[in-house]
Amino acid sequence: MPQKLERSGGRLDGQTRLLLLVNALFACANALSGAFVNVYLWKAKQDFAMIGWFALSHQIVMATMFVVIGKWVKERNKMNSLRLGVALAAIFYLLVLLLGKSAAQWVVLLGGVQGMSSAFFWLAFNVVYFEVTDRDNRDRFNGWAGLLGSAVGMAAPWISGFLITRMPDTTGYRLIFSISLGVFVVGAFVSFFLKKRPVQQNYEWLYGIKQLRQQGNGWRSAYPALFAQGVREGVFGFLIGLMVYIATKNELQLGNYALITSAVSLVAFFLAGRLVKPGRRSIPMLAGALAMTLIILPFFWQVNYTTLIVFGIVVALFYPLYSIPITSTIFDMIGANTESAEHRVEYVVLRETALNMGRILGTIAFIAVVSFTKEPTHITTLMLILGAAPIFSWFFIRKHLAEGGR
């Protein structure tokens, strides 16, 4: 299918807004329970390595499934892939409810189911996102996606923390996991209002590898940039929330943390979505990467709720400056011409493979360190090393940022 010639002029149409709603519902369900799943597992077995294995199984299955389902998404109904991702997320929370306190013994299974959910949802979502946006409105879409994600991330975890602390034993956890299951069902229903997207033919299994082997191909620098992005995400995505709970021993405080940081993130995404433009992405991304790295340094002196709050606020403030440029630039590269647009599924698989390989490496490093030492300084050193990865992302992709993704 050739790339569409119509330009949005920066506007978001009905299908784009509907896709934002589906994304917001998915984010809401995950925000209600996401951080609390790790706390739930931690309370059953206080073991950093166990939490790491839960994340690693998620990442390995997700990386594998992205490659396996690429042909189906390109040549069949990609909307069914998106809906299956939502359904599998609901099944994940159903399994957690059924397993109860024994869930900590099944972290590899649970992580695998969650990884399958992420693969089916995000591969389809990213392809549809590419098809309903263009270079003119992609920064705006990403800004709104971050804005809505911050809004639900602000309210949902606080509500979860409040309910958990007001109910005996694990009753609160079971309630929020049930609510998440219900929100995923609603998300699946809303997704049926998205129009069926045209299918393509001839999925090329080795297309991504061919791009990486081709001299002068922009993906030879984009791939390591995405890999470095994944290195940080793989560990920080689960570790920070767990650190907040360990420091406070209170789920409501974890909810308060999410409320404060998401409020800052909401404003930051709102502003960044309007300020970051094609051709003016390099300096914002570098500023965001540097700020997200330097704010880790205070952890060498003390790790408590105050330093974690300061860390969360700074990251929430600067993360949009980092994430919007790299996300928009990569998808601009995918839509650079008719040929690349026709291989958008292969390119999305290539993008997600790079991110997941980085996440896997980061998580393996985390498991290795915590398996041999519980010394806070050693863990903080690892955080600084992994947390500096966004600087390398900027370094590798800086040329494409200056070109606006062309």
Automatic annotation (TrEMBL):
It is found in: Cell membrane. It is a multi-pass membrane protein. The chain crosses the membrane at residues 20-42, 48-69, 81-100, 106-129, 141-163, 175-194, 230-248, 254-276, 283-301, 307-334, 354-373, 379-397. It comes from the Bacteria. One of its GO terms (cellular component) is plasma membrane. Pfam families: MFS_1. Keywords: Membrane, Transmembrane, Transmembrane helix. SUPFAM superfamilies: MFS general substrate transporter. Gene3D superfamilies: MFS general substrate transporter like domains (1.20.1250.20). Coiled coil: none annotated. InterPro entries: MFS, MFS_trans_sf, Sugar_transport-like. Its main location: membrane. GO terms for molecular function: transmembrane transporter activity. This is MFS transporter. It comes from Paenibacillus antri. The lineage of its organism: Bacteria, Bacillati, Bacillota, Bacilli, Bacillales.
